[in-house]
């Protein structure tokens, strides 16, 4: 992709940086057996309790096949439990296990430490400016 304009250049720089920060966060969360994506699944389960797989997929914006694979992986690591929904035996409920709650806590702490290290280099004014800019970009991306 040829970069012809300042918005394109900065957009590509932002995407590259976001990818780099995510890799650093994933690396630090790995000690708890999580990545940012796996952490997000556990975070939703922690907040919502038992939830149908289909609803979990919607919450995350995942395709149903992708959430099935993610839940199977988390279940094989005993971080979540899957069982039939008593209201509809065809549906599966996903629940956070005690091991999952412990991994979530450890992953949250590891992620917070690295984000504090990265974003803690900014002063309050810079953080406020970044927050405003991220809101503008988020609005322009149409994800609100």
TrEMBL record:
<dbReference type="GO" id="GO:0003700">
    <property type="term" value="F:DNA-binding transcription factor activity"/>
</dbReference>
<dbReference type="GO" id="GO:0006950">
    <property type="term" value="P:response to stress"/>
</dbReference>
<dbReference type="InterPro" id="IPR039422">
    <property type="entry name" value="MarR/SlyA-like"/>
</dbReference>
<dbReference type="GO" id="GO:0003677">
    <property type="term" value="F:DNA binding"/>
</dbReference>
<dbReference type="InterPro" id="IPR000835">
    <property type="entry name" value="HTH_MarR-typ"/>
</dbReference>
<dbReference type="InterPro" id="IPR036390">
    <property type="entry name" value="WH_DNA-bd_sf"/>
</dbReference>
<keyword id="KW-0238">DNA-binding</keyword>
<protein>
    <submittedName>
        <fullName>DNA-binding MarR family transcriptional regulator</fullName>
    </submittedName>
</protein>
<feature type="domain" description="HTH marR-type">
    <location>
        <begin position="1"/>
        <end position="139"/>
    </location>
</feature>
<dbReference type="InterPro" id="IPR036388">
    <property type="entry name" value="WH-like_DNA-bd_sf"/>
</dbReference>
<dbReference type="Pfam" id="PF12802">
    <property type="entry name" value="MarR_2"/>
</dbReference>
């Amino acid at each position: 992709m040829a970069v012809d304009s300042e918005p394109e250049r900065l957009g590509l720089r932002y995407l590259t940086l976001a990818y780099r920060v995510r890799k650093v966060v994933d690396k630090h969360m790995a000690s708890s057996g999580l990545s940012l994506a796996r952490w997000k699944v556990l975070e939703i389960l922690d907040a919502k309790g038992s939830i149908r797989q289909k609803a979990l997929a919607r919450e995350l914006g995942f395709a149903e096949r992708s959430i099935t694979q993610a839940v199977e992986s988390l279940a094989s690591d005993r971080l979540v439990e899957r069982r039939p929904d008593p209201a509809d035996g065809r549906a599966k409920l996903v629940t956070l296990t005690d091991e999952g709650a412990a991994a979530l806590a450890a992953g949250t702490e590891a992620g917070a430490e690295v984000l504090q290290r990265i974003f803690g280099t900014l002063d309050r004014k810079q953080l406020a400016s970044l927050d405003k800019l991220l809101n503008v970009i988020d609005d322009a991306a149409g994800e609100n």
